[in-house]
Amino acid sequence: MKFESKKILDYFTIEGTPGGNQDWLPEWDMNMGGCAAVTACDVCIYLSSQGKFNNLYDHDSKNLTRLDFVNFAKIMKPYLTPRYHGIDFLETYICGLYDYFHDVNNNLLILEGLSSGVDYEIFSRAVITQINNNFPVPFLLLNHHDKELEDFFWHWFNLAGYEILDNDIRVLTVTYGEYKWLSLKNLHDSKSERKGGIIRIFPRV
Known about the structure:
The chain has six helices and nine strands. The chain is α+β, with helices and mostly antiparallel strands and about 200 residues long. Helix 2 packs across helix 3 (about 65-75).
């Protein structure tokens, strides 16, 4: 399968910043540990803003505000509640988001986890395929050998684009209301015993 050399999703902005921002959330537990819920909110808003799956977001996806995002995060919180060790398993995220889908009467999407422990070729192909299919990619990074990624340790964030280079693939991360390009190979190769991974989203056939 031949991929485009570069693709960036038409990601939404809220009052000038890409995606939602965990720092906006007033509840201390969400402010400190609400990253999983924030990425889920972003996924729902993105899909709604693209004119698909409109019931995933209960506000106006064409006129996004910081206040509406904060209120939406309160709705998402019971499904992906922050906890002492964080939401550190892909299955926990999937179960929580599925419960939200069920409660808003959306049975049109399938969620699957893919561990960072799989071969890099399989992992990178999955990331690229998801973005080519116009789905953001929730990513869980646990411990990592690269201290320059410290802000991403034990953290959920979304991938919203990729660029294929000669010896690597760069991915566009979205977290804390900011974009940042990172090496997918480096994100995958954590050299940690505990592995994170990605959530793949598929339309139900």
